[in-house]
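Researcher: Structure for this, please.
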Amino acid sequence: MAAARPAATLYGDDFDREGSPMTTADTTAHTTATATRPTHRKLARFLGHYVEMVAAMIIGMIVLAPLWPAEWVARDDVHAVVMATNMTVAMAAWMAVRRHRWAPIVEMCAVMYVPFLALLVPYWLGALSGSALMTAGHVIMFPLMLVAMLWRRSEYWH
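Model: Predicted structure, token format:
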């Protein structure tokens, strides 16, 4: 009867997948090979993070919208802030689930509000309609999210 070999772990102990002992050269090659991903894989993961955040925002808008009084969301300016809040809560929760650090979560939350808060002044002055406020707020938000992700590239590019 052959002796049982120790099972290899996902974290790369001193045994290869077949359970044979690995030499120092094998271990170094193994960790080097798994530590660097090809650029196309990093790009795919980066874009995946972006899509996950957008999906969380959409879910937040759908799930949290019924919680707000209809009288509040009847006003376009309040509706814009409520929608930004719904998207932000869900996106921040998802980022926390994915174990992002707090600084990038807070930065991404700011990115969600900044376009709407900046556009409220022209809206209140009558220079923007309610639909223009909502459209422009969303159109500006998505590129700002990308900028925030590029700013903290190490958080998303791996």
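Researcher: Any notable elements?
Model: The longest helix spans residues 39-64. Residues 5-17 have pLDDT under 50 and may be disordered.
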